[in-house]
Structure prediction request, 308 residues.
Amino acid sequence: MKRILDCQSSDFLRMFRQELLDAITASEGRTIACETIGAIMPMLGDITNAEFAAAMGADILLLNMFDVQKPVIHGLPKTEPENVIRKLKELTGRPIGINLEPVEQVLSSENPEENMWAMTSGRKATLENARKAADMGVNFILLTGNPGIGVTNEAIEQTLRLFRQELGDRLILAAGKMHASGILTEGAENIITKDDIAAFSAAGADIILLPAPGTVPGITVEYIRHLVSYAHSLGCLTITAIGTSQEGADVATIRQIALMCKMTGTDIHHLGDAGYGGMALPENIQAYSIAIRGIRHTYRRMAGSVNR
Prediction:
C-alpha cells in the first residue's frame, strides 16, 4: 500500500475507493484537497484552475459548482461533455471529486445575476446526478452546501443513505458543511456535532467534513479535535475545510490555520475556491503544503510529471 505522498498519476488511475482511502490514511494528515470552480474564467486564462491548483501541490481536486448535466470547465481543451472529468484527470494526474448539494428549496436568489451560487439542476444531490458523476469517472462526491443555499444536515444524512445503498462502493462519499449554508440554526458549533457525525457514519459516509479551526466563529482546535477523534472511532476519515474565503488571506494566516488543522488530527486538508475567485491563492496552496509536510513532499508533488 502506497501513501498518497508517494503516489504518481499512474497509481491514482489504478485506485478504486478503498485503495484511495488507504493511501490517504497512510499519509498521516498530509493530504491536500483543493476546491476549484470551472464555470468561471480561470486565473490563467487558458489553463484550468484545477491544473493550476495541482501544479501548486494539491493531491486531490474538488470541483465546486460542477453541473453534471451541463459540464463546463473553462480552460479545458475542446472535449465531449461526458469526457470532461477524464480529460481533467489526464491533464492533472489527480483524483477528482465534485460537490453535490442536497437541497429541497433554495434560500437565496436563483438568478445568476443576483447570486453567483444560484442553483442548477445538475448540481443537486439527486441519485441521477450521482450516477452520472460516477459514469463520468468522478472518484468521490462531497455532500455539502454553498453559501445561502440552505442545505441541512438532515438532508445530507438522507442523501448519503440513498447514495450508499444505490451506488455501493463505486465512489467515496464525503459529507459535512464548512459553514452554515444559510441555515442559521446550524451555525457556529452547530454546523456539525457528534450526533451529526454518528448519523453520517451510519448512513455510509467515508469522510466527514468539518470547518477548519479559526474559520468559523466558535470553532476551536479543541472542538474539532474532539470531533475528529470521534469520527475516527467510527471508522471515518476527516477533512478540515477552509470555506470562508480565508483561502485568500495572507500566507501567515494560512500557515496558522494549517498547523491548527494538523493539531486536530485530521486526515485531509481542504482549501476552498475563493482566492480572487475560482481557486485558493496559489501561494497559499504551496504555503499550506509546506506547513503540514515540508519542502520535500511539496516540491515532489509539484514537480511530478503526469506521465509517470
